[in-house]
Each structure stands twice: as structure tokens, then as C-alpha cells.
From TrEMBL:
It comes from Myxococcus fulvus. Residues 1-20 have a biased composition (Pro residues). Residues 152-203 form the GPI inositol-deacylase PGAP1-like alpha/beta domain. Residues 1-22 are annotated as: Disordered. It comes from the Bacteria. PANTHER family: ALPHA/BETA-HYDROLASES SUPERFAMILY PROTEIN (PTHR31934), OS05G0557900 PROTEIN (PTHR31934:SF5). One of its GO terms (molecular function) is hydrolase activity, acting on ester bonds. It holds the Pfam family PGAP1. This is PGAP1-like protein. The lineage of its organism: Bacteria, Pseudomonadati, Myxococcota, Myxococcia, Myxococcales.
């Protein structure tokens, strides 16, 4: 007797494999770090005692002028809708210079630029590489100043963070450009150095990370971080002091608040070194010799260039920039 054939089972078609995707930046970073040789378990001495080194030099830094009370008076007027800029403000060109990672942050310096433009001022942003080397960006600023001189314009330089260091550096390296510059405004610039940059560049495990991640993620140069360390800034300032005859105002800030986006870094510097900082720079290291100083203890490093969520910041970048420019143009 013939056995009945078993029912045919439908054969599922073999799925076509999906094309392999190129791993993203984070995946490439993780894979690359795993393949690197292990770094020694040594965190180094850090930068204890280095903050404010310039103010403790035997010769002493030129005395600064405390403009903080005047800043608050002008800020109240700006918030009330009153004009604070002097008449001469409309005779100058304003060149704004971004800080580290400024090209990567949406909205960075946007409110600063738009406020000055709404006041009818001639504003441009310098085409610096925000993850590039100091001398390369100084060359860009030098060309911007020479261009302004060619057209008979005077310039007010406004730099945030690393951008402020580059504003002072171009005049330290090329003092003949003093004739073009009406004033300089530095916002939270690590003029004396940054403890975060110092620890990143001198701690083996952290240096290993930035040497790999900076070129991969940001197409930057890791030595640009090292240039903001205390060691590098000490050497640069010793060789190229900033001219004292340029009207300069500098903003130095600190904050330690859970409402700050940089709270983790603020806490790190506070607990390890007892440094009062804005999360990137200490107030002492933002002091520029001979400058008019605005010292605030309630602002983090992002607030001068990025608008914060309501209730998380006491300052608006546009208000801040307008007041600092007004202070720079006031006679002293």
C-alpha cells in the first residue's frame, strides 16, 4: 500500500542581507580606542596652584580697573530698552571671533551678532578654525585687520573664550596693527590658561583621548587644546606681552550651580583645586593685564555665547555684548 506523500511545506525565500553601514563617528571612536595600547594609570599632578599665575608675577601685572558696577548700571538700562552705545560706535567695524568648538554648536554667537546688527553696526565674523592652531587663526585676524585698514576702517575686536585669546595674540604679535584697532573685548578668555585644557593635555589618559577624538570628530588639531594650557600660555605671554595702550575690557566669570550645563566641570575644578570657575576658565585667568574688568560670580562659560533655557541663566548674550562694547568705547 502506497504511503501518502507528506504535505509540502512552503519554503521561505532567503532574505537579502542589508548593506553594511559605515560606522558612525562614535562607533569609530570606540573601536579605535579599544585598539590603542593601554595608558599608564597615572593622572599627573594636575594644575594645582597655577590659576592666577600672571597676577602673582614678581613685577606684577599692570593694574586693572573694576568696571563691574558700571556694567550693572548699563545692563539695567539695556534691559529697560534705553540706548547705551556712544555716538562713535557707528564709525567702527565689529569683528567677532568664535571660541573652541564654536563651529559645532548651533546658535553660537548668534544673539551676540544679531544684537549688534539690530543696533545698525557693521558686524562680521572672522573665518577662524575654531579647532585650529593659534598662529593659523592669528593669520586670519591679521588679514581681516589689514583689509579694514585698506578701506580706512577702524575695528573693535570681540572674542569669546579661545577667540578672545586670539584677539589679544594678533596685537601681541603684530603691534603695528594697533593703529587699526579701536578697542578689544574679551569674553571669558583663558588669557592666562584654562585648567580644563591643562588637565586634558597633560593627563596621559585624557591626552590620549583628545589626540584621537579631536581629529576624528571635529577635524581639529589636538594641539589647539594644549595651546590653552598654563604651560603654553606662560611661554607665549613671556615672549609676546599684550600691548598696554589698547582700550580693552575683559569679562571674568564663575559659577557653581546645578542649573548650569557645565556643572560637572565646575564641580570638578572646585573639588580638586578649589578653583572658582565658569566650568572652563577661572575668573583669575580671564584677567587681561591693564584691562577694564567685569567680574561676575553667576555666569557659566556657555552663557556669554549661547542662549540658555528660561530660568537657567541671568544674562542674555545680546545684552552682555552690547554692554561690553559700550564699556570698551567709554573714555577712561
Amino acid at each position: 500500500m502506497t504511503q501518502p506523500s507528506p504535505p509540502e511545506v512552503p519554503v521561505s525565500p532567503i532574505p537579502t542581507p542589508s548593506p553594511q553601514r559605515e560606522p558612525g563617528a562614535i562607533a569609530r571612536l570606540t573601536r579605535g580606542l579599544r585598539g590603542l595600547p593601554a595608558a599608564p594609570r597615572w593622572w599627573g599632578p594636575g594644575c594645582g596652584g597655577m590659576a592666577g599665575w600672571l597676577l602673582r608675577q614678581p613685577a606684577g601685572a599692570p593694574p586693572s580697573v573694576d568696571l563691574t558696577p558700571r556694567f550693572h548700571a548699563l545692563l539695567a538700562r539695556v534691559r529697560d530698552g534705553q540706548p547705551v552705545l556712544p555716538v562713535e560706535a557707528w564709525r567702527h567695524q565689529y569683528v567677532l571671533v568664535r571660541g573652541m568648538l564654536g563651529d559645532e554648536l548651533p546658535g553660537y554667537l548668534l544673539d551676540n551678532v544679531q544684537r549688534l546688527e539690530r543696533r545698525g553696526l557693521d558686524v562680521r565674523e572672522a573665518r577662524v578654525d575654531t579647532e585650529g592652531l593659534l598662529l593659523d587663526n592669528v593669520a586670519v585676524l591679521r588679514e581681516a585687520l589689514l583689509d579694514a585698514a585698506h578701506f580706512g576702517r577702524s575695528v573693535v575686536l570681540v572674542g569669546h573664550s579661545k577667540g578672545g585669546v586670539e584677539c589679544t595674540a594678533v596685537l601681541a604679535l603684530y603691534p603695528e596693527l594697533r593703529r587699526v584697532v579701536r578697542a578689544v573685548v574679551t569674553l571669558q578668555a583663558p588669557y592666562g590658561g584654562s585648567p580644563i585644557a591643562h588637565d586634558l593635555s597633560t593627563t596621559p589618559e585624557m591626552r590620549r583621548l583628545i589626540d584621537f577624538a579631536f581629529p576624528l570628530l571635529f577635524h581639529g588639531v589636538s594641539r589647539s587644546v594644549e595651546e590653552l594650557s598654563y604651560t603654553q600660555r606662560m611661554e607665549f605671554i613671556r615672549r609676546h606681552p599684550y600691548p598696554l595702550d589698547i582700550p580693552t575690557v575683559a569679562l571674568a566669570t564663575s559659577r557653581l550651580s546645578r542649573r548650569s550645563s557645565l556643572y560637572a566641570l565646575q564641580r570638578y575644578l572646585d573639588e580638586r583645586y578649589q578653583y572658582a570657575s565658569d566650568g572652563m576658565v577661572t575668573g583669575l585667568d580671564a584677567e587681561v593685564p591693564g584691562a577694564g574688568m567685569v567680574r561676575l560670580a553667576d555666569m557659566d562659560h556657555a552663557e556669554a555665547a549661547l542662549r540658555a533655557f528660561p530660568g537657567f541663566s541671568r544674562y542674555h548674550p545680546g545684552d552682555l555684548t552690547e554692554v561690553m562694547v559700550a564699556l570698551a568705547l567709554e573714555p577712561r
